[in-house]
Amino acid sequence: MQVVLEVNGREVVREVAPEELLLDFLRDTLGLTGVKRSCDVQVCGACTVLVDGAPVSSCCYLVADADGRRVLTIEGLAELPEFERLEEAFTRHAGLQCGFCTPGLLLTVRSLADAGELTSEEEIRRSLAGNLCRCTGYRGILEAVADAAGVA
Amino acid sequence: MTVETRLRSQIGRSHPRLDAREKLRGQAQFAGDLLVPRMLHGRVLRSPAAHARIVSIDTSSAERIPGVVCVLTGADLGDIDPYYGHAIKDRPIVAIDKVRFQGEPVAAVAAETPAAAAAGVDAIAVEYEELPVVADVEAALAEGAPVVNDTVPRPGLFHGLGQLPPREGNVCYRYRIDRGEPEAVFARADVVVEGEYVFPAVYQYALETHTVVAQFEGDEITVWASCQHPFLVRAELADLFGVPVANVRVVVPYLGGGFGSKSYTKMEPLTVALARKAGRPVRIQNRVAESMVTTRRHNMRCRMRTAATADGRLLAREVECLLDTGAYADNGPRVTATAGDAAPGPYRWAAYRVDACCVYTNTAPAGSYRAFGATHVQWIGESQVDEVARRTGIDPLELRRLNLLTPGEEVRSGGKPLDADLVGDVEKVAEAIGWGEPKEPFVGRGVSVGLLAAGAHPVSSAVCRLEADGRVVVLVGTTEMGQGPRTAFAQIAAEEIGVEPEDVTVRGADTRFTPYDRSTGASRSTTLAGLAVQRAAADVRAQLERIAGTSELEPGSHVELLRKHFGFAGGELIGRGEVAPADGSGSYAEGPVFWEVCVGAAEVEVDPDTGVVRVRRTATAADVGRAINPQLVERQDEGATMQGIGNALFEEMVYEEGLLLNDTLLDYRVPSFEDLPDEMTCVIVENGDGPGPYGAKGCGEGALAAVPAAIVNALADAGVPMNELPLTPERVWRRIQQLKEEGAWRT
């Protein structure tokens, strides 16, 4: 089947199998390897991308369901002017270690920021529970997100 | 040394991670992101049975599937000695005649697409004849138990544990220490605490699963692998496939976490064997369920008793540990020895006896996981110390002040004396969680102290190249898996040569070009590889000073000096740095390189109606000698603290008769953001007492041993003493009911 979607601001038209996962499509067909595979069961958040601005686990999301929609991956997010603020905060607070969970996490943060849901430390702790990080112990991420979001 | 006389501008500075930009922008390349020309996709057929004889394997249907290039089975390995294992060569590359654990590779398919590879795996027909399952250590040691691993015991290339005795039944390895006469001391003790304890099997869960791309051309092997120990993998591959060490090239990109799960040799032999048969490069990337059975943390049963005087002097300890290493040794012998060394705890004993036994069972092989050995036993020993404190009416912190070893005292006979101020460390963490402040009901506080033999074998080397444009390239074999060595090494090289860290490039291991480094693990990289980098950089500096004819170099004069020396705009200065033990020493018995401090404190709150334990405050001591980059040190301790919370509270691989019941992250829970304590403090201690550059020593593991022990002690302080991990709500609630029945529940 044919899908037409917007990925990182560019139109993509491709033939795909109906069962093809968005994760494999982004990584293997489009070469967007910033999207990471880990748990395969929508728990870890490493494969998170935004579809029409909302975070989805691309490991359990069909390309077919993204037909006609806008997809944003880390490669696209990094091109946006507002990314610099996030990048600077994560760098300053060392809110990353191995970097494998980082792209998915940043996309979740982006959608939460857009929705105005990063208003307190409490909120950050609760709303990022769907992105696992095994390295940092979350402290550095918390500081970075709070800083970027202007939460005291 | 010139180091001492120059201003230290780069050391002790929280320089931003040099890999931050690449990682934040999704540009960092991991093994699964690499595309090798003509690369095929590999999938592994794994055993559904925990113990079975393979009656037959029919691969003909699989081979007919379009896109399938070949199917590898044990029958393809007749021309090589297919057994490997760095400690004990007890494991075939792929099952030969029998399977010994659920998930053991039985065959592997190489295909043009992942879908064809998966279809190929599904089309392989295997007939099994089930054999009796040895489910746990008790079953393994029972009279007449079936033998799990019936291979001929042969030492691996990196055995390093002395004589390998003949194998007795299912005992893989045994480590014993005898000191003094414990029986006599126990007979005259005022206080004796004893108990039986259970520690679960745990999954390291590096988010990036084990991933390998292998290519076998002529007699040259190349692997791009998510591995922590590229040089040890290289040696094992050379040994297995009968080629010179120099013909094996191991390239290591960024790792998506390691924590020990990617130490030594894991999926590399199988991927190389498949590539050899396919005649083309092949990638195998595990799924989570596969990585869980590739390696895990040893579960353990332990009996311990501790003797003390009525005035709180610790006298003697006896420990028996049974560690379940699964069907193959992996790093079981070293884990067992390390647990044995950690079992007495860093106290001044009159006598102790340790008997640590590594046992084969029909479960997934167990190996390294951050702070192995120490994490296994510290919570047990420290809970007994706290019980002594309760019975003698002495404050737990005071009891530790009375009994802890002090710097220079012997830790282990013939080993390195204590090189850290443990009393100072534990006082600092206790203070950080408000020790002595009033507590609400159902809130408890605990501290714990331990030591971990760190550094592994002290062999590391590095090369520094000062290029004609003034930039520096450091070649060193350390694997960047998140802990930040590339940034720390850039700071060290910059400090020595007199440039900025941004001017220094540090990349991952490529064994064809990077000089030898024993491994990335055992908290050794900053200490040992860092020392090699420091020496290599100092070598470059010395060459520059010779060229200039002075030790006072003008800032920014390097390019000009090189031009003067070479007479044109090219050439480079090459510095060499090496760390090696004197005269072939450096063995485990003489070690360790340093004692990693495992000191922590916790404050917890238990809900008596539900058994839910919440960690409110933690503190750990990063006793690092000298912090090259304090922020990276803190982040290491925080990560280890969080893993400690997971290990203590909920992580557990649940096995039933050799079958793993929770092989997805849906039912194997790891800590999430919501488990972050209200306060998490890392106290950096800098006494300059490490053997590494500027007096540094490693960190990052100790907190994982310290935190579960502190949590267990805090929970006991809140009224619920536990002898089994993890501290799940159900387990804690049942214990509370038991305490109520015994009239021992204080509300």
CATH class of the largest domain in chain B: Alpha Beta
Structural class per helix/strand content of chain A?
alpha+beta
% residues in beta strands of chain B: 15-25%
Task: Please provide the ordered H/E string of secondary-structure elements of chain A.
Answer: EEHEEEHHHHH
Strand order of the largest sheet of chain A: 2-1-5-3-4
First-residue to last-residue Cα separation of chain A:
49 Å
Give the percentage of residues in beta strands of chain A. Answer: 15-25%
Structural class category of chain B: alpha+beta
How is the biggest beta sheet of chain B arranged? 7 strands, mixed
Q: State the domain count of chain A.
A: 2
Radius of gyration of chain A: 15 Å
- Stated plainly, the CATH topology of the largest domain in chain A is called Ubiquitin-like (UB roll)
Main sheet: strands, sense, barrel of chain A: 5 strands, mixed
The greatest interface here is: A-B, 51 and 57 residues
Count up the domains of chain B. Answer: 3
Shape of chain A: globular
Number of strands of chain B: 27
Assigned CATH class of the largest domain in chain A? Alpha Beta
**Global geometry of chain B:** globular
